[in-house]
């Protein structure tokens, strides 16, 4: 069974414009799927429909075997990492990472502390747990956003151009880290980018969107070798 199944997904805006047009795509359990395509092709809209931040006009979105079209984002058990990180400025690194666990209720404080430390360790944030986001570098903020994503077990990670605010050197480093982390955790991942290097190095498969249509789904090797 696929971790995420999209069946004939359409997103039509008020003026009749279809930002996403009849997209069907299965993402396997543990797979790292890239969504690429030129600006305006519908990548973010599709990602936002997976998370539940955008209503689906028609089609079925199935996650972990459940049809989720009418489920609120918090009931889909997914972690999303945004381009701007969306950290809480008044909370420490520890509390930013702990946030999803506190929302779940009923998790003992010991357990929260253990899981936050484990996530922070994986991302080399242990020495910064008491700091606020304003006092962190861009790369560290990115790590906090990832810590928050991995602190609980979820059906999938969703990334919306997570590295586009970083300089080239950091982007390379974080790319390696995201890849390492995803392999270690084995969590299904959907990753939106317009960066060819990210698409070719991170993805198990790459889904190419064009004007709302799914144009092609292939491995990086197949894409690279095609004429
Ligand atoms: P991408 O992420 O690939 O750059 P988007 O998914 O953000 O593309 O947008 C796809 C298309 O849908 C674009 O043409 C965009 O202008 C349009 N669009 C996005 N949001 C809305 C909206 N709320 N109302 C109308 N059109 C929208
Ligand atoms: P992104 O960086 O993800 O491509 P955009 O700058 O395209 O984001 O869009 C930012 C916001 O504006 C989104 O919430 C999107 O839904 C909305 N939006 C984009 N295009 C349109 C549009 N043509 N009409 C109305 N809202 C739009």
TrEMBL record:
GO molecular function terms attached to this record: ATP binding
Sequence ranges assigned to domain ABC transporter in this UniProt record: 4-227
Keywords: ATP-binding, Cell membrane, Membrane, Nucleotide-binding, Translocase, Transport
Protein's name according to its UniProt entry: Sn-glycerol-3-phosphate ABC transporter ATP-binding protein UgpC
First and last residues shown, out of full length: 1 to 227 of 419
């Amino acid at each position: 069974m696929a971790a995420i199944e999209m069946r004939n997904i359409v997103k039509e805006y008020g003026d009749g414009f279809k930002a996403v047009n009849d997209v069907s795509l299965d993402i396997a359990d543990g797979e790292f799927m890239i969504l690429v395509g030129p600006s305006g092709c519908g990548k973010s809209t599709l990602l936002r429909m997976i998370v539940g931040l955008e209503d689906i006009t028609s089609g079925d979105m199935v996650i972990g075997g459940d049809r989720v079209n009418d489920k609120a984002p918090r009931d889909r058990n997914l972690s999303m990492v945004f381009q701007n990180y969306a950290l809480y400025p008044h909370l420490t690194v520890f509390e930013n990472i702990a946030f999803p666990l506190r929302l779940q209720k009923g998790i003992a404080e010991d357990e929260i502390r253990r899981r936050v430390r484990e996530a922070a360790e994986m991302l080399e944030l242990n020495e910064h747990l008491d700091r606020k986001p304003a006092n962190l570098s861009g790369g560290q903020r990115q790590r906090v956003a990832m810590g928050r994503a991995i602190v609980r077990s979820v059906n999938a990670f969703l990334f919306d151009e997570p590295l586009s605010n970083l300089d080239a050197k950091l982007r390379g480093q974080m790319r390696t880290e995201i890849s390492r982390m995803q392999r270690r955790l084995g969590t299904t991942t959907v990753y939106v980018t317009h960066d060819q290097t990210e698409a070719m190095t991170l993805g198990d498969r790459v889904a190419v969107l064009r004007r709302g249509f799914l144009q092609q789904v292939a491995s990086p090797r197949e894409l690279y070798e095609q004429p």
